[in-house]
Amino acid sequence: MGGRARSHSPIPVANRSSLVVTVLLACVGLGVTCPSPTTEITSARAVEIARAQVTFEPASIDVDKTSDGGQPTWRVTFRGNPASPDHPQLRPITIVLIDRRTGEVRSVAKG
Predict the structure, then answer these.
(1) Are 55 and 69 in contact (CB under 8 A)?
(2) Total domain count for the chain?
(3) Which one of 9, 45, 83, 94 is most buried, counting C-beta atoms within 10 A?
(4) Which backbone phi and psi does 44 adopt, to 5 degrees?
(5) Which tens digit of pLDDT belongs to each residue from 38-86?
(6) pTM of the entire predicted model
Protein backbone atom coordinates (compact mmCIF):
# COMPACT_ATOMS: atom_id res chain seq x y z
CA MET A 1 0.00 0.00 0.00
CA GLY A 2 1.66 3.05 -1.19
CA GLY A 3 -0.33 5.51 0.84
CA ARG A 4 0.86 9.00 1.30
CA ALA A 5 1.36 10.37 4.79
CA ARG A 6 -1.00 13.21 5.62
CA SER A 7 0.48 16.25 7.16
CA HIS A 8 -1.56 18.59 9.26
CA SER A 9 -0.52 22.17 9.12
CA PRO A 10 -1.22 24.37 12.12
CA ILE A 11 -3.91 27.01 11.82
CA PRO A 12 -2.31 30.44 11.35
CA VAL A 13 -2.56 32.77 14.35
CA ALA A 14 -4.84 35.23 12.53
CA ASN A 15 -7.28 32.43 11.69
CA ARG A 16 -7.21 31.10 15.26
CA SER A 17 -8.16 34.53 16.60
CA SER A 18 -11.09 34.84 14.23
CA LEU A 19 -12.13 31.28 15.09
CA VAL A 20 -12.17 32.12 18.80
CA VAL A 21 -14.21 35.26 18.15
CA THR A 22 -16.66 33.28 16.01
CA VAL A 23 -17.13 30.63 18.69
CA LEU A 24 -17.66 33.27 21.40
CA LEU A 25 -20.22 35.11 19.28
CA ALA A 26 -22.01 31.84 18.56
CA CYS A 27 -22.16 31.04 22.28
CA VAL A 28 -23.55 34.48 23.09
CA GLY A 29 -26.07 34.15 20.28
CA LEU A 30 -27.24 30.83 21.72
CA GLY A 31 -27.56 32.30 25.18
CA VAL A 32 -24.51 30.48 26.54
CA THR A 33 -22.50 32.87 28.65
CA CYS A 34 -19.93 32.67 31.37
CA PRO A 35 -21.36 33.12 34.83
CA SER A 36 -20.99 36.68 35.99
CA PRO A 37 -19.80 37.43 39.49
CA THR A 38 -22.69 38.23 41.80
CA THR A 39 -22.62 41.41 43.77
CA GLU A 40 -23.98 41.68 47.26
CA ILE A 41 -25.18 44.61 49.29
CA THR A 42 -22.96 45.49 52.23
CA SER A 43 -23.89 44.73 55.81
CA ALA A 44 -24.14 48.49 56.43
CA ARG A 45 -26.67 48.80 53.60
CA ALA A 46 -28.61 45.83 55.02
CA VAL A 47 -28.85 47.65 58.36
CA GLU A 48 -30.14 50.78 56.60
CA ILE A 49 -32.81 48.79 54.79
CA ALA A 50 -33.82 46.80 57.88
CA ARG A 51 -33.95 49.91 60.11
CA ALA A 52 -37.20 50.95 58.43
CA GLN A 53 -38.86 47.90 60.04
CA VAL A 54 -37.94 48.90 63.62
CA THR A 55 -40.30 50.97 65.81
CA PHE A 56 -37.98 51.43 68.82
CA GLU A 57 -34.54 52.91 69.43
CA PRO A 58 -32.07 50.01 69.18
CA ALA A 59 -29.63 49.48 72.03
CA SER A 60 -27.69 46.97 69.89
CA ILE A 61 -27.60 45.79 66.29
CA ASP A 62 -26.13 42.48 65.12
CA VAL A 63 -25.61 41.51 61.48
CA ASP A 64 -24.95 37.94 60.36
CA LYS A 65 -24.29 36.52 56.90
CA THR A 66 -26.57 33.52 56.49
CA SER A 67 -28.94 31.87 54.02
CA ASP A 68 -32.69 31.45 53.96
CA GLY A 69 -34.15 28.76 51.73
CA GLY A 70 -30.83 28.52 49.91
CA GLN A 71 -30.78 32.27 49.22
CA PRO A 72 -27.88 34.40 50.51
CA THR A 73 -29.27 36.55 53.29
CA TRP A 74 -28.27 39.15 55.87
CA ARG A 75 -29.92 38.57 59.27
CA VAL A 76 -30.13 41.94 61.04
CA THR A 77 -31.12 41.77 64.71
CA PHE A 78 -32.17 44.93 66.59
CA ARG A 79 -32.48 44.78 70.39
CA GLY A 80 -33.99 47.60 72.42
CA ASN A 81 -33.45 48.64 76.01
CA PRO A 82 -35.16 46.62 78.76
CA ALA A 83 -38.77 47.57 79.40
CA SER A 84 -38.05 48.00 83.12
CA PRO A 85 -35.15 47.52 85.56
CA ASP A 86 -37.16 44.80 87.31
CA HIS A 87 -37.28 42.73 84.10
CA PRO A 88 -34.02 43.25 82.17
CA GLN A 89 -34.73 40.21 79.98
CA LEU A 90 -37.89 41.84 78.60
CA ARG A 91 -36.76 43.97 75.73
CA PRO A 92 -38.07 44.63 72.24
CA ILE A 93 -36.39 42.70 69.45
CA THR A 94 -36.80 42.77 65.68
CA ILE A 95 -35.08 40.36 63.28
CA VAL A 96 -35.08 41.29 59.61
CA LEU A 97 -33.86 39.01 56.82
CA ILE A 98 -32.50 40.91 53.80
CA ASP A 99 -31.65 39.30 50.46
CA ARG A 100 -27.89 39.88 50.04
CA ARG A 101 -28.15 40.23 46.26
CA THR A 102 -31.23 42.44 45.85
CA GLY A 103 -31.64 44.18 49.19
CA GLU A 104 -35.24 42.96 49.36
CA VAL A 105 -36.75 42.41 52.81
CA ARG A 106 -37.45 38.66 52.95
CA SER A 107 -39.06 38.55 56.40
CA VAL A 108 -39.56 40.48 59.63
CA ALA A 109 -40.01 38.95 63.09
CA LYS A 110 -40.88 41.10 66.10
CA GLY A 111 -40.96 40.17 69.74
Answers:
(1) no
(2) 1
(3) 94
(4) -65, -40
(5) 699 999 999 999 999 999 999 999 999 999 999 999 999 999 998 888 8
(6) 0.64
Look at 95 and 24; give whichever has higher pLDDT: 95
Q: Give 26's Cβ-side CA count (13 Å radius).
A: 6
Q: Residue 107: enclosing H or E segment and its boundaries? A: strand 105-110
Does residue 85 lie within any of the structural domains?
Answer: yes
CA nearest neighbour of 110 among 70, 80, 73, 71: 80
* CATH code, domain carrying 97: 3.10.450
Residue 73 lies in a domain: yes
User: Cβ distance 98 to 73 under 8 Å?
Assistant: yes
